[in-house]
Fold this protein.
Amino acid sequence: MTRTLRLDDDVDEALEKLAQERGESVNAIVGRALRKLVEWDRLAGSAGLVLISPVTLAKLMESQSQEQARALGEFVGDDVWKPIIISRFGEVTLDSVLRSIELIGRYMGRFNFIYSTEGTKRLITIRHSGGLNWSNFYVGAATSLFSGVLGVEIRPTLTEELASIEYEMPEDKTRGA
Amino acid sequence: MKPSRARTFRVDADVDDAIVKLAREDRSSVSQVANKALRRYVEWDRAPTTSGFVSVPSMLLVKLMAELKEERARELGRWAGKQLFLPNVKAGNPTMSLERAEDNMRMLGDYGRRFTFDHGVEGGKHVFTIGQKLGRNWSEYYAGSLESILENFLGKPMKVTVSDNMCVVEFRE
């Protein structure tokens, strides 16, 4: 559908310039920015998410042991992501957890998310460039949500740049996943 | 009132519905809501000091920083001011100035949501203040950052005061 907006001149000019630099249309940039607003920005603000340089964040995580990194992930899964999932999707289900991981990957800028299925097996792979501590962090967060909240047993695998979580699809939880 | 112009865009129906709803909740117009979001998008995206920033829960930053000693937090802030902030301000415009650095600090505060930034002047005394709610070590971190940034421009003595939720740097003209 079409929508007419009254834009400040300087915003309109900045959009034109950005579109030229990126070789895409102003419409494409506006569409992406507005989708980010409704899918993420409001939620991020109300959930206490803040922005930081990835280099500074990496230095802070370096000071943790792998066990501490995993415990931090469990804390964030339970105290941050669970309320965010409930706020965004109404309840914590396998489906809403997966949709949230996809959103987080798209907008938080820290990892890529790959989801694959084979029969009743499900495999979530989080690809990142943060090292073993971040892999432990993601496994901790997944453990908190999948095992702690949903009661689904997971088998994690981690490397320097991957955190994979494998689980069997419960028969009574097939919706959308 | 800022000069403005009408532009028509093709927008996904679900996004349009959601923006209409946001505007209703905010008691504002769809154009005002969209304008604010687009301003944030272009300003944040184009600012060299913020490009590539990642989003994290503030509680995670509290816990990560709590593990450090105060001196290490201050040292990390000095490193970030000198090695991250200043080179990025310069990358955006080779003519460095304190005003330009301040603009970038203000933008980091406004859009990054980690701190508030203020610069006041009274009777020849300048007071830079960063307010934050993530614990004492983050005040130390910002004190170190401000020190290293201001040293680059001033080369004169500064008084630095740190509390649990604020750091203040003062100097005379």
